[in-house]
Amino acid sequence: MVIIMEHDATKPQIDDIINKLQDLGFNIHQSTGIDHTLLGVIGDVSKIDPRDMQVLPGVADAYRISAPYKLVSREFQHKNTIIDIKGVKIGGDEVAVMAGPCSIESKEQMMTIAEIVSNAGAKFLRGGAFKPRTSPYAFQGLGEQGLKIIREAADKFNMLVITEVMDKEQISLVSEHTDIIQIGARNIQNFTLIRALGSIDKPIFLKRGISSTIEEWLMSAEYILSGGNRNVMLCERGIRTFETYTRNTMDLSAIPIVHKLSHLPIIADPSHGTGLRDKVIPMARAAVAAGADGLMIEVHHDPEHAMSDGAQSLLPDQFVDLMKQIREIAKVIGRTIADARV
User: What's this model's pTM, rounded to 2 decimal places?
Assistant: First the structure.
C-alpha cells in the first residue's frame, strides 16, 4: 500500500501514521519528494481498508499496489530514481557510459584501457576482479590485487569504478575499492547475497538473470530496496533463448517495459547481450534510442589475447566511433552523453 501525504502535511501527522502502522506490525518506507511525502506500507495489507487511511489528517490518498514488487514499482514512486555518485547521475538526462575489459588482467592493461575510454567520454571504468566462469579451468580473476589495480586506474583518469561481487563475504572488500557493486546474472537469485546488499550504503547494479522474466528481475531488486538500499539500477544483458547465433538474445523491449513498470534506472549491456564484436555497436545504438539510462561496453586494446570475452570486446577505435554515434542519437531523444576529453 502507498499512502500519499498532502503537500502541507506536518511532521507530527506523518509520524502519527507511521507509528500507527508500525504498531500493527508493518514496515514503513518513507520517500520525501518536493511535492509530497509517500509512505510505503510493507506487509499483508489486506486487513487495512485504504479508505480508513484516506480520512486521516494530512493524507491525500491511499491505495494498494497491485504489482508483487512494491518499492520497485512505478505505483510506489512515479518519478524516476536518479542515483548520484560523486556528482555523476544515473537515471537523469545524461546517458551514463561504463566501459572497460571483462577481466582485470594487469596494471598496464587497465591503465591503457582506462585512458582510452575516459578520453572518449566514459565516466565509469568496468572490470572484473572475481570472474564467474562456466569452466572451472578458465581465468578466475586477480581478486584483491585486481581491485587495487582498477581503483588506481580509475583515480588516475578521474573515473568511477564498477566491479562485481560474487559472494556475501566479499562485500566489505569490494566496497573499499568500488563506487558501484555489480551483481552478475548468475547471482540474481542468490538471496543471501542480495539481502545483504540491502543494508549497505553503495549503489547496486543488478544484471538480469540468464533466464529471468522481467518480474523475477524486479523481485530481486525488491529484496535490495526492502533492506533499505534505494540506489539500485537494473541491467539488461541478454537472456537465453533457443537462438544460438548470438551468445544471448538482447531483449531491447525490456528497456521501455522496465521504464513503465519501475522507477529504477536501466542500463544496457550489448557486449554480453550479443557476444559478437560486430553486433555490439548496432545494439548499443538501438539501446540508447530505446531509452536506456546507460550503456556497459567491453573494450580491450588487444582482444585476441584477452583472458576472457575478447570476441565481444570493442577495439579502441570502435569505441570512439560508438561514442560519437550515440551522442547524435541521444540528442534526438532529448538526452546527452559526456563529450570526449581529447
Answer: 0.89
